[in-house]
Each structure stands twice: as C-alpha cells, then as structure tokens.
Amino acid sequence: MARQTDAAQPLAAYARAPVLLLIIGFLMLQPLSTDLYLASLPSLATVFAVPASKVQLTLSMFVAGFGGAQLVIGPLSDRHGRRPVLLGGLGLYVGASLLCAAAPGIDLLIVARFLQALGCCSAIIIARAIVRDAYAPADSAGVIARASSWLSLAPLLGPILGSYLQVTFGWRAAFVVHSILGACLLVAVMLRLPETNVHKNPRATELAGLLENFRLVLGEREFWANALPGALSYGAIFAFISGSSLVLIRVLQVPTAWFGYCFAFGVSGYLGGTILCRHLLPRFGQGATQRIGATASLAAGALFLAGVKLGAIHWTLVAAAMFLTMGAHGINFPIAQSGAVTPFPQQAGTAAGLMGALAMAVAFLVGTVTGATFDGTLTPLALIVCALGAATFASVRLLGAADPQVAR
C-alpha cells in the first residue's frame, strides 16, 4: 500500500496554486455557516416569539438545501468544470448571507438559510472533487485529514466568536461575518484557482448520463463502505450541533457567553481525531483506521447515555460527550470523504455530491428529531447520539471498507 504522508504535494500542473489552502477555506465554510450562530438559537426563539422547533428549521432547512444541491452541483462541475460552478456558488452564498442578516422575520430567515446552503454546498463539493483532481489517489485520505486538522479551527473558534457576537451585537452579526468570509473566498478563487477538471464529461448533466453516473457510483460497494459510516458519524455530531445550545443554555443554565467555550472544547476532540487519523493511516491502512474510528463512535455514544442514566446531569458530561463523539468523527470523516470519491476520477463531482447528500439526509433527519424530542432533559440527545454511534459501528462491520483502489 502506498504510504500516506502529510507532505503530499499537488500534481505538477497545480504546483503554483495554493490548492491546500483553498481546500481548507472551502471546507471551513460549512461549519462556520452553522456554528457561528449556534449561541443565537435560544435568542431567536425569544426575538421572533416562536417555539424552539421553528428556530430549528433555520438549521434543518440549511441541511436540506445543502443535501439536495449536492446532487446537482457535483454533476455540473463534472460537465462545466470546478471553477465556474464555484464562482457562482460563492456569489450566491454572499448574497444569501446578507439576506439572512437583513431578515425581518423567522420565515424569511429560513428561506435565506436555504439559499445560503445552496451556495455553501458548491464550496464543499468542489473541495472534495479538487482533492481527487489535483492529488494522487494514494495521497487523498492524508490530504483530507491534513485539511481537516486545520478545518477544526472553524468549529473550535466559531462558537466562541459567535457567542461574543450574540452578546455584543445580536444575532444578525453572525450572518454579516458569513458574507465577509464568502466574499474573501470568492476573490481568492477568481485570482488564484485554476480549473482542475481535465476530464469534463459533456453528458454529466444529461438525464441519461446523470442516471448512468448515479448507477455507477451507487452500485459500488466501496462507495457505500465509506459514505454510509461517514454519514452516520456526521449525524452524531449534528445532534450536538442542533441540540447542544438548547441543552447547555436552557437546561443546564450555562451563560450564553460561555457556551462557545463548552462547544469549542467538544470540537477540540475533532482536531485530535484528525491528527490521530493522520498517524494511524500510514501504520494500519484505511480499513483498520476506519474500524478504530467506528469503535470510538460506539464507545462515545454508550458512555454519554450511561452518564445520563446514572444521573450525571452536568454541563461537563455534555462537553465530554461532544469531545469523544467529535474525536471519533475526526477519524471517520476524512476516510469517508476520500474513500467515497477515489474510485471515480471521471465522476468525482457526482460521487462527492452523492456522499454529501447522504450525509445531509441523515443530518436533516437527526436535526428534525432532535428539535422535536427536546423535552427539557438530556435523555433524548443521549439516546440519539448512542443510536448513531451504534449504527456507525454496525455499518463498518457489515460493509467492511477496504483500502482504496484506483478506478477502472
């Protein structure tokens, strides 16, 4: 097996472009789009005089838009190239973020969040496809793990910044920051990113070609062996993304300004997980490393539920459970993103889109259930996280991901 390395360089054609830095920036956009305003969720319910379940729609509709768009953006980038689709998506993201900041009511905010998701989706999908375009297949998991280590700074620092933005300026400030970040990425793409898709498929967006690509990707066991555990693992951390502010602020009475630090501690587990992933890959290979991550997911969920059932109702339990769950995700997700796309050099955008759509479908379901089952206790959240940890473990054991092979 080819050795994974943190020092992997882009292929010669892209050596002059800051490919890794741009990939990190694109991947950061999604966690910042959610985590930066988490501390504002309880306030939104008060400001707009709506129940928590209505406020949760600002998260759930973002996830729905993000998931659905991946089925379109991936094939579009396979046909027309990464660069034009990315430029259009980032432009939409900036406009939608400004609309969020100006929204006079919760209904328009929900619609604007849906539009924001469509733009954000282009950055994430194309970041994954660019990894396949610009790096050797043997290096892709290591590259994503390295990018994910830097990516963890976004969910690590985002909730802290978001807490202070909420306390100092109110909920609209987070969306102003989103628009500034989107504009910076848009300028960077215009100035420094070359086109990386050298295998454009003119039939990628035709119905027959689209269905054929879907059939090819979805028919591969290797795709499911990576994408399904990755989606379930993402669902586990999304349970905390959608439920932690309500649990910590409303149930456990953590001050809003302190919420960001609690969430950041949990996210530091993700940083540790990605670093651990980078060290495990060259030693054990992709399949064994994925099994380690899945076992960690199961253990994290089981310990959280056990703590709640034993009466350890304290903010430290929630923070520790987030730390362990996100640490496991830091191992699981880089492998899932790489393994789901690597076998498909000519359908990289489609494969990335399908994998992302699956993850977002799981997240949408998890976010909806988390909001609907909130009862003023920690029990529903603990049950959801434990169930997803067990499902991640079972999917890895049943499907058995292997080390990636170069596509036919």
TrEMBL record:
<feature type="transmembrane region" description="Helical">
    <location>
        <begin position="110"/>
        <end position="131"/>
    </location>
</feature>
<feature type="transmembrane region" description="Helical">
    <location>
        <begin position="12"/>
        <end position="32"/>
    </location>
</feature>
<feature type="domain" description="Major facilitator superfamily (MFS) profile">
    <location>
        <begin position="19"/>
        <end position="408"/>
    </location>
</feature>
<feature type="transmembrane region" description="Helical">
    <location>
        <begin position="348"/>
        <end position="369"/>
    </location>
</feature>
<feature type="transmembrane region" description="Helical">
    <location>
        <begin position="312"/>
        <end position="336"/>
    </location>
</feature>
<dbReference type="Pfam" id="PF07690">
    <property type="entry name" value="MFS_1"/>
</dbReference>
<feature type="transmembrane region" description="Helical">
    <location>
        <begin position="231"/>
        <end position="252"/>
    </location>
</feature>
<keyword id="KW-0813">Transport</keyword>
<dbReference type="GO" id="GO:0042910">
    <property type="term" value="F:xenobiotic transmembrane transporter activity"/>
</dbReference>
<dbReference type="InterPro" id="IPR011701">
    <property type="entry name" value="MFS"/>
</dbReference>
<dbReference type="GO" id="GO:0005886">
    <property type="term" value="C:plasma membrane"/>
</dbReference>
<keyword id="KW-1133">Transmembrane helix</keyword>
<dbReference type="InterPro" id="IPR004812">
    <property type="entry name" value="Efflux_drug-R_Bcr/CmlA"/>
</dbReference>
<feature type="transmembrane region" description="Helical">
    <location>
        <begin position="85"/>
        <end position="104"/>
    </location>
</feature>
<keyword id="KW-0812">Transmembrane</keyword>
<keyword id="KW-0472">Membrane</keyword>
<keyword id="KW-1003">Cell membrane</keyword>
<feature type="transmembrane region" description="Helical">
    <location>
        <begin position="171"/>
        <end position="193"/>
    </location>
</feature>
<feature type="transmembrane region" description="Helical">
    <location>
        <begin position="288"/>
        <end position="306"/>
    </location>
</feature>
<keyword id="KW-0997">Cell inner membrane</keyword>
<feature type="transmembrane region" description="Helical">
    <location>
        <begin position="381"/>
        <end position="400"/>
    </location>
</feature>
<feature type="transmembrane region" description="Helical">
    <location>
        <begin position="52"/>
        <end position="73"/>
    </location>
</feature>
<feature type="transmembrane region" description="Helical">
    <location>
        <begin position="143"/>
        <end position="165"/>
    </location>
</feature>
<feature type="transmembrane region" description="Helical">
    <location>
        <begin position="258"/>
        <end position="276"/>
    </location>
</feature>
<dbReference type="GO" id="GO:1990961">
    <property type="term" value="P:xenobiotic detoxification by transmembrane export across the plasma membrane"/>
</dbReference>
<protein>
    <recommendedName>
        <fullName>Bcr/CflA family efflux transporter</fullName>
    </recommendedName>
</protein>
<comment type="similarity">
    <text>Belongs to the major facilitator superfamily. Bcr/CmlA family.</text>
</comment>
<dbReference type="InterPro" id="IPR020846">
    <property type="entry name" value="MFS_dom"/>
</dbReference>
<dbReference type="InterPro" id="IPR036259">
    <property type="entry name" value="MFS_trans_sf"/>
</dbReference>
